[in-house]
Amino acid sequence: MAARCDVVVLISGSGSNLQALIDSTTGGDHPARIRAVISNRADAYGLERAKIAGIETRVLDHKAFADREAFDAALVQAIDAYAPQLVVLAGFMRILTPGFVRHYQGRLLNIHPSLLPKYKGLHTHQRALEAGDAEHGCSVHFVTEELDGGPLVVQALIPVESNDTPESLAQRVHVQEHRIYPLAMRWFAEGRLRLGPSGAELDGQRLPPSGQQLRN
């Protein structure tokens, strides 16, 4: 078997996307291996998920650092101790410094609960409902210095129902997040996904601006 792709996952909360990533790698033939889970919050339940799965954990409290730059410098050191080929943001609630993003250029993925470039930032489900959108969903993208603005890898689209609330929409989007994030990680680990000079590429072909789109 070829060498596996080592992955470090960053979290701040319950870690439901982390769980989906862990579950996807349980087969012995998976090309990715989650080496460590690092959280900026000691009470993040995702740390328990990692421990149950036998994955190393680290806590790095951002409040213990003088500023964002100092925290990110320490975070780089913590991540690089595992020499990962890929760093995955799974509900990591920190805005990253340009230096951090550049350090992991082309090997840093994030998931966002909207069909980017729509609704960058927070309250995405509420905003989709207020806009009267017929479709909503989630996006996996490479991270660049522009917040939620990096090249798109894959999106999952779901119809917005007439009786949807932000909560019901969030629930259905969550299901799709758990579907597409493991997929993107697998593509990367297999060497199929990369960040090229003009955007995300899958199997040597440049992906469209919206990435691969999967409809339910």
UniProtKB/TrEMBL annotation:
Family: Belongs to the GART family.
Protein name (record): Phosphoribosylglycinamide formyltransferase
The keyword Transferase appears for this protein: yes
Sequence positions that bind (6R)-10-formyltetrahydrofolate: 68, 93-96, 110
Catalytic reactions of this protein: N(1)-(5-phospho-beta-D-ribosyl)glycinamide + (6R)-10-formyltetrahydrofolate = N(2)-formyl-N(1)-(5-phospho-beta-D-ribosyl)glycinamide + (6S)-5,6,7,8-tetrahydrofolate + H(+)
Matches recorded under HAMAP family: PurN (MF_01930)
Primary enzyme class: transferase
Pathway, per record: Purine metabolism; IMP biosynthesis via de novo pathway; N(2)-formyl-N(1)-(5-phospho-D-ribosyl)glycinamide from N(1)-(5-phospho-D-ribosyl)glycinamide (10-formyl THF route): step 1/1
Pfam families from the UniProt entry: Formyl_trans_N
An example Gene Ontology molecular-function term: phosphoribosylglycinamide formyltransferase activity
Active site (UniProt): 112
Binding annotation for N(1)-(5-phospho-beta-D-ribosyl)glycinamide: 15-17
PANTHER family attached to this UniProt entry: PHOSPHORIBOSYLGLYCINAMIDE FORMYLTRANSFERASE
This protein's UniProt keywords: Purine biosynthesis, Transferase
Gene of this entry: purN
PROSITE patterns: GART
Function per UniProt: Catalyzes the transfer of a formyl group from 10-formyltetrahydrofolate to 5-phospho-ribosyl-glycinamide (GAR), producing 5-phospho-ribosyl-N-formylglycinamide (FGAR) and tetrahydrofolate.
Organism: Metapseudomonas resinovorans NBRC 106553
EC number: 2.1.2.2
Domain Formyl transferase N-terminal: 7-184
Annotated site residue numbers, Raises pKa of active site His: 148
InterPro entries per the UniProt record, alphabetical: Formyl_transf_N (IPR002376), Formyl_transf_N_sf (IPR036477), GART (IPR004607), GART_AS (IPR001555)
